[in-house]
Design a protein that fits this description.
Helix content is about 40%, strand content about 20%. With about 220 residues, it is an alpha+beta fold. The longest helix is centred in the N-terminal third of the chain and has 16 residues. The radius of gyration is 27 Å and the shape is elongated.
């Protein structure tokens, strides 16, 4: 009975709180100062909300507070006209473009709107990678590129599981970039370039065929 109770408690804990080993999605945050626009702080691709908020506050400076914590894309707009305190911020599930448009609309709704501009915008890692629309063949090339660089993705099947994500994080760290486990455009190009050289027939540019042999000279007859 005791074992059964323990099992039930464990199952309920996983259902309610999630698996303790489940990977968390990157988090971002925006902080602005009390004057609403003079200073701001921006953070993306952090493991926890508190880490993202702390980085945004540190970047913004004294007198700032966090106004937005987001999981995908976000943007911040402010009115540049003198004496205006109109600002706007927004999160978008779909894209950075949607976030920028929503932030501008919010800023313009709070003032004249003539001087509203987007000051900062961006997405957390998974959204950037999703926007690249990588097919399975491209993902396989990336895995081959990781393996070629000395980072084992666990296989080259075109599916990004935990081992591939771990290999990406380690590879990113070795390059001195943020270790998120998700790729941006330049990183995809770098890894696909390495992977293409490992694929069958991917040994670089095709060599030009050899020139045809010169025509044989006809013997002169006397």
């Amino acid at each position: 009975m005791t074992i059964l109770k323990s099992l039930v408690v464990t199952v309920l804990a996983v259902v309610v709180f999630g698996s303790p080993t489940a990977a968390q999605s990157p988090v971002g945050a925006l902080a602005i100062d009390e004057r609403q626009g003079d200073q701001w702080g921006w953070a993306v691709d952090h493991e926890t909300a508190s880490a993202a908020q702390g980085m945004a506050l540190q970047e913004c400076g004294p007198g700032c507070s966090v106004v937005l914590t987001f999981g995908r894309c976000a943007a911040y707009a402010a009115d540049q006209d003198a004496d205006s305190t109109a600002v706007g911020w927004a999160e978008s599930y779909d894209s950075a473009t949607g976030a920028r448009q929503a932030a501008l609309a919010e800023c313009r709704s709070r003032g004249s709107g003539a001087g509203c501009i987007v000051r900062v915008w961006g997405c957390n890692g998974p959204v950037v990678e999703e926007d690249l629309d990588l097919n399975r063949a491209a993902r396989r090339q990336i895995q081959l590129g990781l393996r070629s660089a000395g980072f084992d993705p666990g296989g080259a099947d075109g599916l990004f599981g935990p081992r591939t994500r771990a290999a990406i994080r380690t590879w990113q760290s070795s390059r001195g970039t943020r270790s998120t486990g998700y790729l941006d455009g330049p990183q995809v190009e770098a890894l696909r370039g390495r992977g293409a050289r490992q694929s069958p027939g991917g040994g670089g540019a095709a060599r030009a065929p050899p020139p045809p042999p010169p025509p044989k000279k006809k013997k002169k007859t006397r």
